[in-house]
């Protein structure tokens, strides 16, 4: 059994005991994302109990060392936990409060628990694929049906941010006061330096001779990444990785999309 599997079984035992799923039979199957996910080990989990059977999906952190620091993985995992443990609950309560019908609600995967231990960060949720959801091929151009469903889903996510700010201003302020970190850290390490040198050399190599100096000048004077993500006006909780590889779709007459929230950027 791998370290990631041992970590997962520990979290599963704690969370399933808490929910009274005893006795039970638990089967864990490692899966591959085909290169779409490299920070975590992914698993499918089947739980059989007299109470009910569960189809679960789990992620266990495997990123370590310098790469973990370079990718700001501490922040990514913490924000993912925040999404499922707090933000999802806020949004679900808001939709109930305003009596939104089931067909228009923003829906999150059912959350079963997490682990915040450093290097063993774990998230467990329902397996949406077992409920008929499917990924879109990330190597293909997205079509109108899937694109429009995705934008509608994202619009609901942003709308709930404004509703949260209006109905629960103190809670929203607490969330939006979280400092935006990605791209703002001082990075003098050799890995980041060599990575950027490679990117710049590659860009200059393919540029026309008359454009090479302009390309170099652009990189030398480029603003920090986070300067592009600061709000012009009112702050909003915005998904930071809303792309095809993080979306699952299910056809119900028309396509409707739902996202596994990898992390949020909190624009303040």
UniProtKB/TrEMBL annotation:
PANTHER family: JUVENILE HORMONE-INDUCIBLE PROTEIN 26, PROTEIN KINASE-LIKE DOMAIN-CONTAINING. InterPro entries: CHK_kinase-like, EcKL, Kinase-like_dom_sf. Coiled coil: none annotated. Residues 123-268 form the CHK kinase-like domain. It holds the Pfam family EcKL. This is CHK kinase-like domain-containing protein.
